[in-house]
Write the structure tokens for this entry.
Amino acid sequence: MRHCALNVAVYGKRKRWAMTERGTVHRGSEFLRIGPSALHWDGTALMVQIDEVTVPVPRRIRGTVRLYPLALENRTLALDDAGLHLWQPIAPCARVEVDLQTPAQRWSGFGYFDTNRGARPLEADFVRWDWGRARVGSGTAVLYDVQRRDGRLALGMRYNDAGGVVDFVAPPAVSLPRTRWGVRRNVCAPGSAVVETLEDTPFYARSLIAAEILGAPVTMLHESVALDRFASPAVQAMLPFRMPRSWKS
């Protein structure tokens, strides 16, 4: 509650990014208000009302995203042996409707919704991780490759639109080209290639990856996080410029 922000990233010709910590936060069993933005569950869809301003150049991001789960999952997975870091794909298969007034965009497609929570800072127990998800047939495939301080964990899962999940053995990880900031990118899908780098920061990269999963060619949304980089004093000093704090509503 002391460090709440709505992170919004818009890609394309009008790329915009906002992540401002807010001093005014309200929550209930079906809603969460973070400053001028809000999330609300109406029993059918998660509605996200966005009203944010980008940094360092102030530009507005305003509009609505609606996420309709095709099936809800209740399985929670521990990313460490002690169970201090938990991950749950709540709606790994979902439909989304995006209606932005600023910048003007409207589209719909398949989406994904998960949650992470933990009892310790991520950098205390992890060196890095690579995560990716892709639409495969009538479901969603997820790959997780976690480098922990005490070992490594690789996960492969295929979630079905109708509900249910099938675990599979994640293929050996292969290295992709590093980002301009030198962040390592690995993916558990041999033969993969980077299509586009969407976010390139000193400790984090978000990319579109052309890959093959379970025998199907896919375009994967892929994330790489370098926690030693994140914990460095230089990166910590940069964070307020990328993630400012606002005490206003």
Q: What stands out?
A: The helical segments are 122-125, 227-231, 233-242. The CA atoms of residues 144 and 155 lie 5 Å apart.
